[in-house]
Amino acid sequence: MIDVDFMVFDFDGTLVQTAQDIAAALNHALTALGAPRLDDEAVRRYVGDGLHKLIERALGPERETLHARALDLFMEYYDEHLLDTTVLYPGVMEMLEHFRDTRKIIVTNKMESFTLKIARGLAIDGFFDAIIGRDSGGPVKPDQRLLQPFLQRFALSKDRTVVIGDGVNDLLLAKNTGVLSCAFLAGLTDRMVLLSLRPDYCCEDMGDVRALFR
Questions:
Q1: Catalytic residue among 3, 10, 49, 72
Q2: Average pLDDT, the chain
Q3: Quick one: DSSP state of residue 104?
Q4: What are the CA-CA distances from residue 15 to residues 89, 94, 134, 152 (Å)?
Q5: For 109-160, what is each residue's pLDDT tens digit?
Q6: Is the backbone peptide bond immediately before 199 cis, with ω within 30 degrees of 0?
Q7: Which residues make beta-bridge pairs with 106?
Q8: pTM, rounded to two decimals
Q9: Whole-number Cα distances in Å, 56 to 13, 39, 51, 62
Q10: With b meaning 16 or more CB within 10 Å and e meaning fewer, what string describes 179-188?
Q11: CB under 8 Å to 146, separation ≥6 — which residues?
Q12: Is 10 an active-site residue?
């Protein structure tokens, strides 16, 4: 068990199970535009690099001219339905309570407004010092400049900082910044892809985090 002073969490696929609501919003947009619907597995593969990239991948190059309209349709629908089926992963609330006195932030490639709305709806926003979305105005994952202001402002040590997430960008953010990485293997990204990046720690359940760090 290692002592940590700063915990950086991903959102989709790490703290919250959002895939079903994202898929519903995406397929709403695709259907409205006459494009083929995608199954849940395809949507899972496309998530992780922000909404614009999600739409781009879903439309494909042959429908790229529909990007702006698809984006509007997605956002309008998702804003109304982002908590239809979205829930916390098992063990998240207990883990956050356990680390209540540890500095924590959320860093996600999801839009900040959607992230805040879900965090507030699931009553976890109060656990975090900051919630940073892709559109927050600064660098995005996996840019090492993203975490530097927090490390400097709070005089935090890199060897007592950990990034916890289910995505390639989360592990690369940790490696690029020189902090610890913890792969959540039960999220949206194939576990073998994550393991190939040689994370410092792995967990199968958010409750496991309490046994890894203190």
A1: 10
A2: 93
A3: E
A4: 6, 12, 17, 26
A5: 999 999 999 999 999 999 999 999 988 778 889 999 999 999 998 889 999 9
A6: no
A7: 9, 131
A8: 0.93
A9: 20, 16, 9, 10
A10: bbbbbbbbbb
A11: 107, 132, 138, 139, 140, 173, 177
A12: yes
Strand-pair category, 16-17 with 87-88:
antiparallel
Residue owning tokens 């998702």: 78
With 0-12 / 13-18 / 19 or more C-beta atoms within 10 angstroms meaning exposed / middle / buried, residue 91 is middle
What residue spans define the domains of the chain? Answer: 6-17+87-212, 19-81
Residue 104's beta-bridge partner residues? 7
C-alpha 29/C-alpha 14 separation (Å) is 25
Helix (H) or strand (E) holding 57: helix 51-59
Q: Which amino acid is at 150?
A: F
Tokens at 13, concatenated = 């696929």
Q: Which residues contact 96 (CB under 8 A, 6 or more apart)?
A: 104, 124, 127
Q: What CATH number does the domain located at 6-17+87-212 have?
A: 3.40.50.1000
